[in-house]
Amino acid sequence: MSTREMPVDLALEQRATARIVLIAAAAALGGFLFGFDTAVINGAVEAIRGGFGLNAARIGIAVSCALLGSALGAWYAGPLADRLGRVRTMQVAALLLAISALGSGLVSGMWDLILWRVVGGTGVGMASVIAPTYIAEVSPAQVRGRLGSLQQLAIVLGIFAALLSDAWLASTAGGASAPLWLGLEAWRWMFLVAVVPALIYGALVLGVPESPRHLVAKARLVEAREVLREVLAMRSDAALDYKLGEIERSLKMEYRPTLRDLRGPRLGLLPVVWVGILLSVFQQFVGINVIFYYSSALWHSVGFSEADSFSITVATSVVNVLVTLVAIGLVDKVGRKPLLVVGSAGMAITLALMAWCFSEAVGSGASLTLPAPWNITALVAANAYVVFFGISWGPMVWVLLGEMFPNRIRAVAMAVAAAAQWLANFVITSSFPALAEVGLSFAYGLYAGFALLSLLFVVLAVRETKGMELEDMPG
């Protein structure tokens, strides 16, 4: 029997309880650490570059090296989650993030900074896969989009918290390179403060139940039944039996998928896997993380003071948070695909406008400035770009990746797609300093081109998943 043939009273048994919202929020805190850990280096870029004497290529590697760890963590998170469970994997991610925060704040050179950032990136990559997968697996279909969007909300809140703490620490010390407490420079404290949310995350996920789909895959049916009963408030034995049977049928015997299960007729992979990979790649190739990793240095480089650059960056992160809240309200009403279409079109226009503005910059090197009215126009365009991304490609990609794959391949397909995302992020982030030396207009024009390609991709290849049960996802 398909979900569409399910009796109405059984369908109504799955309810969005307060408990499921709290559980999803606790899991999504991994997204907060994801945002915090990846964005915190924004305020430290110039201090690290000057303190360790790094050129454009080396600072690009120092900023982006965590993303290689993220790709590694994302790649192994799926198999690890299938073996240990979703909850235990989230705990491992929290531990790696806490260790990385301590190590990064106490480094003595570029290479040990790279080491600890890769360790933290591994934790981020694991969290980026497991949190949306877990949330999708415990959520009722009618609110799964909104609960899945909590991951992106947590990410943007993490970015905001990182940039706000960067600005506060730099202001308190009198500059990112100035000494603060215990004789350590402010930029070191920017990393060290991440220990606190990592420990909180680790503690909170101790209290969340294991995914019922993982429990069924492990033949722990009594525990799965209790999770469904308590988390989704399913009281009817008939409803519980139906749901357990539905999960068992969808998983069949393939609860430990491997890369072989992703093979298909199109360039060696199933079409749905290629869609997931390209969603991930386009999310990064539109250049969003250039804004969140380099924006303080970027605005400083075109004539704004260090203090103003930090303030602009924090304001942009606030915009990102607000539009993510709007996206959460729209995702289960409007759908995933329409929001992606609007986002791609808006990003293409605003990125092209930014490229035009930066073509009007005068001077070079330290004396580069962006004269009026181009400086204000660039600021408005940058924030409009963040609006279009935040309402679409930011949350929608994570929602889709958490729900679009069939149950039998979800974990490993999610790992492949997330690893592709981190590798794409690394390519964009590590290449930006060199592209910026060629010209900011060229860099943003390139990202505008990718935004236009993303629009064509969504229209032609992305399938709407609004309201569908996970068990009904086509392969």
UniProtKB/TrEMBL annotation:
Annotated InterPro entries: MFS_dom, MFS_sugar_transport-like, MFS_Sugar_Transporter, MFS_trans_sf, Sugar/inositol_transpt, Sugar_transporter_CS
Keyword Disulfide bond on entry: no
Entry keyword set: Membrane, Transmembrane, Transmembrane helix, Transport
Domain of life the protein comes from: Bacteria
Transmembrane segments: 20-45, 57-77, 89-108, 114-135, 147-169, 189-208, 269-292, 312-331, 338-356, 376-401, 413-436, 442-462
Keyword Cell division attached: no
Compartments where found: Membrane
Recorded coiled-coil stretches: none
UniProt domain Major facilitator superfamily (MFS) profile: residue ranges: 23-466
Protein family membership: Belongs to the major facilitator superfamily. Sugar transporter (TC 2.A.1.1) family.
Protein name from the UniProt record: Sugar porter family MFS transporter
